[in-house]
User: Which sequence fits this backbone?
């Protein structure tokens, strides 16, 4: 069938798939994935790419709109590739994300204890639908354009405000965009600007990704920018953590922190202001509380990919003897700091690759009551099969990718564990991204 005929044929959208596209079928039965479409809609499409097994397309016209379709509030939404669900009412976003998690479990062959809908709970909404991002990274083009990648393109959409970011970040971003001459001067050295805002103090760090950032001309320019931005930006640093402005500031002073109050606990965590942290800080606190409730009351706990102690510290405060594993040297350094500041003698940390450390612990016959893991997007992979060898009573698995998460859960189940609860947590409203917490328990027939 010609592209022209494909584009003339109305397409019924059956469901949303991971990635935010609507799935429909062409008259010949071939699957078409349609950007900007919602389940139940009839649309006319514009073909973007033909692949062997499916067609990729965008909405050319909505012939029959979903009752859950809304006007996207962002003026950049039509072009910007940062968000892809602003055209859906928030309740619909939550239901679609829950359905995607359910399908990922089913496709991977994950067994559910009883009915699947009894195991899978509705997605937990974010406390904020907009203004929740405490970290925002924008690309800087060689021509001085600062913005996000255009949909399906390497070109940039210039932006001076992002509805997902905090007001403090938007104030700093707006000022920098107006200082056009400084941005053009930065362009030969900087490929991306990242704005990070401390959730407790609201202080802002501007993190630069680029080369030769300690060049004298760059430092002079940054000094002028930091002075002009002094009411909005507190530090300017490289992505490696070198403080560029204000000059003379020690790296150990360059940190963010957040106060946590949940599960009967009150404590504080600190981390390097230039490093990874959960961008939706309020939802992260709710996720930690969920995880603590799911962990039970363990005497011993293993926290894989522990970062700066997001889960390790509250586990130890609840009385568990905790071992945290993290590959990042900065993460381990701040995890130890956070454990010490909390007065914890029942927590230790090791810098190691999670898969290698699991293999070592298994060889050594280590045992833990609870294992908690929060790996990066690619998941744990084949090493997930090692978790049952440590014979935990309970495993709490957190992931930001439903497909790799379901794969890992299936491997864990094969070791004698049953899935008792899955909770999608909406960490990233207005986008297709989904955070999920799964809880598994050892069966009576499990190993050990």
Assistant:
């Amino acid at each position: 069938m010609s592209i022209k005929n494909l584009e003339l044929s109305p397409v019924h959208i059956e469901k949303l798939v991971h990635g935010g596209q609507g799935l429909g079928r062409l008259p010949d039965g071939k699957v078409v994935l349609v950007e900007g479409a919602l389940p139940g809609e009839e649309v006319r499409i514009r073909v973007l790419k033909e692949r062997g097994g499916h067609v990729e397309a965008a909405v050319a016209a909505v012939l029959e709109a979903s009752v859950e379709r809304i006007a996207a509030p962002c003026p950049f939404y039509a072009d910007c590739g940062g968000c892809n669900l602003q055209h859906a009412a928030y309740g619909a976003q939550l239901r679609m994300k829950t359905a995607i998690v359910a399908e990922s479990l089913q496709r991977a062959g994950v067994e559910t204890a009883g009915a699947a809908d009894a195991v899978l709970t509705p997605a937990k909404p974010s406390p904020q639908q907009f203004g929740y991002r405490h970290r925002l990274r924008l690309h800087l083009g060689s021509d001085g354009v600062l913005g996000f990648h255009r949909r399906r393109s390497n070109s940039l959409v210039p932006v001076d405000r992002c509805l997902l970011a905090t007001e403090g970040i938007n104030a700093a971003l707006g000022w920098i965009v107006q200082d056009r001459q400084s941005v053009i001067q930065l362009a030969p050295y900087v490929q991306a600007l990242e704005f990070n805002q401390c959730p407790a103090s609201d202080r802002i760090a501007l993190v630069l990704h680029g080369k030769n950032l300690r060049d004298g001309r760059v430092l002079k320019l940054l000094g002028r920018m930091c002075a002009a931005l002094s009411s909005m930006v507190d530090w300017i640093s490289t992505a490696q953590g070198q403080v560029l402005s204000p000059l003379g500031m020690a790296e150990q002073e360059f940190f963010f922190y957040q106060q946590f109050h949940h599960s009967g606990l009150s404590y504080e965590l600190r981390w390097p202001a230039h490093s990874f942290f959960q961008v939706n800080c309020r939802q992260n606190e709710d996720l930690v509380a969920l995880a603590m409730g799911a962990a039970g009351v363990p005497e011993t706990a293993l926290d894989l990919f522990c970062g700066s102690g997001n889960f390790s510290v509250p586990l130890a405060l609840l009385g568990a003897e905790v071992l945290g594993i993290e590959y990042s040297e900065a993460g381990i350094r701040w995890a130890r700091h956070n454990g010490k500041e909390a007065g914890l003698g029942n927590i230790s940390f090791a810098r190691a690759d999670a898969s290698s450390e699991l293999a070592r612990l298994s060889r050594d016959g280590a045992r833990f009551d609870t294992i908690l893991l929060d790996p990066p997007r690619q998941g744990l992979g084949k090493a997930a099969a090692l978790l049952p060898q440590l014979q935990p009573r309970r495993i709490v698995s957190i992931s930001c990718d439903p497909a790799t998460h379901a794969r890992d859960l299936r491997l864990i189940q094969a070791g004698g564990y049953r899935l008792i609860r899955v909770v999608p947590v909406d960490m990233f409203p207005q986008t297709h991204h989904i955070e999920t917490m799964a809880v598994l328990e050892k069966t009576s027939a499990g190993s050990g």
